[in-house]
Design goal:
Residues 1-22 form the signal peptide. Keywords: Signal. It comes from Streptomyces ramulosus. By secondary structure, this protein is α+β, with helices and mostly antiparallel strands. Helices cover 28% and strands 20% of the residues. Helix 9 (308-317) packs antiparallel against helix 11 (363-372) and helix 15 (470-481) packs antiparallel against helix 16 (485-501). The longest helix has 18 residues, at 390-407. It is globular, with a radius of gyration of 22 Å. The two termini are 37 Å apart.
């Protein structure tokens, strides 16, 4: 996702899970009683669960939808939510029972059909949903989303409604880890109005989560109110959330300090050093399932011709991650040693050493590899980033300075700011990038597979590099079919090593989630995806 949330990128989901906020709408000193005012930015796409794979849209979907599974805010552990039970005897066919009494914000009951119809819609190629691949493991996906040609079926043969609150899912192969992903919002249920009045839904999305969309003024704000029909355990402790759009993260931080904003989970890098004192202790920083990388456009021959893997690896070795994280981020980033995140832990695929030399600063070897590989294309390179997030310029400049120092050329690498987050992402998805660009991932669910399949599998929805490797794809398939979770994780690590050896992306650092809050609220915490747990925030007075 964002990406991870998606993850996102967490998934994720959270691409970006690409961690990019936002815009600069006006602020108001007055606050609506009981309502939390929070920093936000317009999402890239309309809020369809299967079509949202970036963090800004994912933040809203997490608030207005509840899934079969949810993830513990502190540990990321998957647990049943709307699902009463998820059972299997063979790790391939799953029987899912939906809790009775669940409703959408328009009063419509949540049923087994709500999930089956939503998943069929998300999978069907003609609906062009970015997260379609999440349904690829369900039997019949090759018919509704064939690699070539038009679909020969409109629904997944592996989905069957048994009764109002029971359905079955048959996968193409055994997959013991499959239920873990069911907390990702691509698997959210959809109300009947999504299909009968699609335009109406897009204008005002209807979900089954703790909050409901009250209004949305693009470029300014979205107001969410408690969903009066919500039947789950995570009931809001406030009267709603006002998501305010900012184009300047420093403007948001200034509003936070002046009391015109209540929650800011995008504290600018240059403010982090003093945030705790500025906010009188109302600040937290904690590990999150988010990473940052520099990705190469492998669809351009200049970066993918024979020998360029040495150049890409050399560039990675030319980056002094430790110095940059300390200077730019004041300890809220940790140099990366793999493509996942430490919050996964060893059991779910995190590795302290799999990246090896590729992620180790070595100026002499870096310069040697870049020369052996033929040097930078045209003798120069840029790193593109979205210009509406001030902190990106800081680290991109720092990375380029590190590379330039190694190469002895202060003009070899420069940053390339690209408009807004939406502009930036559109250039990436249209394959218009000709030089490396910043990317990141916010996990969608806490498992190594989520940091690999979306980003590096052939045809993956967030495979921005357009990387393709038969051995990598085969290992993903083998791991997915492995019923033993530990053995499956080891296979995923073997696949990860292929990506690292080819330096498809340069792992930079793991991101801490940070948040500051005003004196008007209490109970602020971040979940494992680095997003505020809005339902638990209380407004004083």
């Amino acid at each position: 996702m964002r990406g991870a949330k998606s993850a996102t990128w967490v998934a994720g989901a959270i691409v970006v899970a690409l961690g990019a906020t936002a815009c600069g709408g006006g602020s108001s000193a007055s606050a609506e009683p009981g309502v939390v005012r929070a920093n936000w930015g317009d999402p890239q796409n309309p809020l369809e669960p299967a079509n949202t794979n970036e963090v800004l849209g994912g933040k809203v979907l997490d608030m207005i939808f509840s899934n079969l599974k949810s993830y513990d805010p502190k540990t990321g552990e998957a647990k049943n939510d709307v699902a009463q039970s998820i059972d299997t005897k063979d790790q391939q066919t799953f029987t899912i029972k939906v809790k009775k009494g669940e409703k959408f914000s328009n009063g419509e009951p949540v049923t087994a059909r709500s999930f089956v119809d939503a998943w069929n819609y998300g999978a069907l190629a003609t609906n062009a949903q970015k997260n379609s691949y999440f349904f690829a493991d369900i039997k019949g996906y090759d018919k509704v989303a064939p690699a070539e040609g038009k679909p020969t079926a409109k629904t997944l043969s592996g989905l069957k409604v048994v009764d109002d609150h029971t359905f079955t899912v048959t996968l193409t192969e055994k997959m013991s880890t499959w239920p873990l992903r069911l907390g990702y919002k691509a698997f959210a249920p959809l109300p009947k109005t999504f299909f009968s009045d699609h335009d109406g839904y897009l204008a005002k999305p209807v979900g089954n989560g703790p909050y409901a969309v009250d209004s949305y003024d693009k470029g300014k704000q979205m107001k969410l109110v408690p969903n009066t029909h919500y039947a789950g355990d995570d009931k809001p402790q406030n009267k709603g959330v006002l998501l305010k759009v900012y184009t300047d993260s420093n403007a948001a931080y200034a509003d936070l300090q002046s009391g015109n904003l209540d929650v800011d989970d995008d504290v600018p890098a240059e403010q982090i050093r003093n945030a705790k004192s500025d906010l009188k202790g109302r600040y937290l920083s904690q590990p999150a399932g988010v990473n940052q990388v520099v990705t190469f456009p492998l669809y351009k021959d200049s970066w993918n011709k024979p020998g360029m893997e040495k150049v890409r690896k050399g560039l990675s070795m030319a980056i002094d991650r430790k110095a940059i994280t300390e200077k730019v981020y004041n300890g809220t980033r940790t140099p990366a040693t793999d493509l996942t995140s430490p919050v996964l832990g060893d059991a779910n695929g995190y590795s302290k050493d799999i990246c090896g030399d590729t992620c180790t600063y070595n100026p002499t070897e870096a310069k040697k590899l870049i020369k052996e590989g033929g040097g930078l294309p045209g003798g120069k390179m840029t790193i593109s980033y979205n210009a509406d997030k001030d902190s990106h310029k800081q680290w991109v400049d720092a990375v380029c300075n590190s590379i330039n120092t190694v190469l002895g050329d202060d003009k070899a690498c420069v940053g390339n700011p690209v408009g807004t987050f939406g502009d930036f992402r559109n250039q990436i998805t249209k394959q218009e990038m000709v030089q490396p660009f910043r990317a990141g991932w916010q996990m969608d669910y806490p498992q190594i597979e989520n940091f690999l399949t979306p980003l590096y599998a052939t045809g993956g929805a967030s495979n921005d590099a357009k990387f393709s490797d038969p051995k990598f794809d085969a290992l993903l398939k083998q791991a997915g079919a492995e019923p033993d979770v530990k053995k499956a994780t080891d296979l995923y690590k073997q696949a990860e090593k292929i990506v690292l050896d080819q330096a498809v992306s340069i792992p930079l650092w793991y991101q801490n989630g940070t948040a500051g809050w005003s004196e008007h609220v209490s109970g602020v915490q971040l979940n494992a995806f680095s997003l505020p747990v809005f339902t638990q925030i209380k407004v004083k007075g």
